[in-house]
Amino acid sequence: MNKELEARKQKFHQMVMDLQDKITGEMRKLDPALALTEDRWERKDHAGNPGGGGITRAFTGELFENAGVNTSCVFGKIDPKFAQNLQGSGDELWAAGISLIIHPRNPRVPTVHANFRMIHQGDKHWFGGGADLTPYYPYEDDFSFFHGAWKKACEPYGHYAEMKKTCDEYFNNHHRGTEMRGIGGIFFDHYNTGNLEKDFAMVSDLAAHFIPSYFPIVQKRMKENWTPEDEEFMLYRHGRYVEFNLLHDRGTLFGLRTNGRTDSILISLPARCKFGYQWKPVPGSAHEKMMEYYQPKAW
Q1: Which DSSP letter does residue 255 get?
Q2: Longest pairwise C-alpha distance within the chain
């Protein structure tokens, strides 16, 4: 047994649980009406043995229409066929992480998603995660702020350009050409430089930057008035969000294939959405302008 690796795994699990508490606290400050349903769940592994579990926190409120801030630590046997698709060896897996999605009610406030995880399978371990923004109104200064926060966070490690490009390419509804789900952020996977201490420190540091990357935008926009047209556009873009999460998201598949809690996995979906045949925003509107930003851009 690699004692250093085992110690880091436990520290990572504690780190994401601490971050879950901090994010919950920030949300409560901004939305006093926030209602929380907490579910501490357990799972069985592929062989039917105890295989860990997690803490799901589902929120509904006046500012945050629906949100989920979830942590998990799962272990044990997994489907051998699924195991072959991963990076390690064997059919035993350990994985811990935090995954969050916040869907505000006000269309002037962006949706945000983030996750940070550590995985150990057989003779290999790796890290992954990132954060991305899905806005519904063309406030370019907000977009620059979000990307600037992550560029600064990545600066000590030199990975911003690479992680931004990976995010642009991954959070993309490929069945709709080059249309991204939102305006991107950073994303990385299978990260392992061979220096466990440094890798752990980097991912922990990046995770700590989520709060200052997003909540200042919420504070800035949360009291703005919005129009029915703003809401219509947001619901239409929520539909695009659903398309990505159900058709392309590897995290959704990973959770379902490792016997995770289904409702905890699908908590990423917005409470409301619309689909319209070849729906398009009004020509010349702010919403038509917003469509221009769902493409890779230099920030």
Answers
A1: H
A2: 63
**CA–CA separation, 31 and 64 (whole Å):** 7
Condensed to tens digits (0 to 9), the pLDDT of residues 92-148 reads 999 999 999 999 999 999 999 999 999 999 999 999 999 999 999 999 999 999 999
User: What burial class does residue 220 get, using C-beta atoms within 10 Å of its C-beta: 0-12 exposed, 13-18 middle, 19+ buried?
Assistant: middle
Q: How far apart are CA 182 and CA 184, in angstroms?
A: 6
pTM: 0.94
Query: Can you spell out the DSSP letters for 174-193?
Result: GGGTT-BSSSEEEEEEEE--
- Look at the alpha carbons of 178, 182, 185, 186 in this order and tell me if their dihedral is positive or negative: negative
User: pLDDT tens, 68-79?
Assistant: 999 999 999 988
Residues serving a catalytic function are: 113
Q: Which of 201-211 are b and which e, b meaning 16 or more Cβ less than 10 Å from the residue's Cβ?
A: ebbbebbebbb
What SS3 state is found at 203?
helix
**Strand spans (E) along 105-219:** 111-121, 124-134, 184-191
Alpha-carbon distances, residue 59 vs 56, 99, 267, 288 (angstroms): 10, 14, 10, 31
Output b/e per residue, 168-192; b: 16+ Cβ within 10 A: bebbbbeeeeeebbbbbbbbbbeee
Q: Name 248's Cβ contacts closer than 8 Å, sequence gap at least 6.
A: 172, 173, 174
